[in-house]
Amino acid sequence: MKLILLLYSFLFGSVMSFERFENLIGKDISYANQILLVEGFQHKNLLEVNLYTSNSYKEFYRMSYNMVSIMTDENKIIKDITIHFHHIIDSSFYNSFTVDYGNPDAILVIDKDDSEGKFKEINPKKEFDHKLKKVTLKVVEGKFEDGPLFMIWKKDHYDIKILKKREQNISEITFRLPSNKL
Q: Looking at residue 155, what is its pLDDT?
């Protein structure tokens, strides 16, 4: 019990509600499961994703969230953790985040947006309404002020990717095992 409380205070207990999600990468899913359940999240397993939701909102750099998803490998070792926000990351978040993680290695903004055709029905049995549209984006290097789609940090033992989906008014931050590409 003391270990769980120590882990809880390490991950969730600082003044800014500063969680160190990157410390869970490479660990067994049961480790993260204990911490998130103590924090008040409920666990759901959807296909290959461990989804944690909460009825109350938590804060990460003063932005509220109530959902965390975790991907594992075949041995149940955490490959990545994504925090899902119901709004777009703003400059206040970005400035605070870069104090702790440094400037991103890449900031990618949309240069060209090519949409092909109309929405296409992909569920002929009408069990649920789902339509698909192909969109191709060309991205170029930019600055935070340009309204980036992606921001990427390459750290020694993990990567961070922030995705801002303006049309849906949501953002995601993913901490993951390092990859060789941006």
A: 94
Closest C-alpha among 1, 54, 26, 65 to residue 176: 26
- Give the strands of the sheet with 78-85, arranged side by side: 42-46, 49-60, 63-72, 78-85, 170-176, 159-165, 150-154, 106-121, 131-141
Whether residue 81 contacts residue 25, with contact meaning beta carbons closer than 8 Å, is answered with yes
Please choose, from the candidates 27, 70, 65, the residue with its C-alpha nearest in 3D space to the C-alpha of residue 47. 70
Q: What does the radius of gyration of the chain's CA atoms come to, in whole angstroms?
A: 18
Query: Is-contact 51 45, C-beta < 8 A?
Result: yes
pLDDT in tens, 139-154: 889 999 998 999 999 9
Residue 67 has pLDDT above 60, yes or no: yes
> Which of 26-30, 70-74, 96-100 has the largest mean confidence?
96-100
Q: What is the pTM of this model?
A: 0.76
* Rounded-to-integer distance, Cα 160 and Cα 81, Å: 10
| Cα(44)–Cα(50) distance, integer angstroms | 6
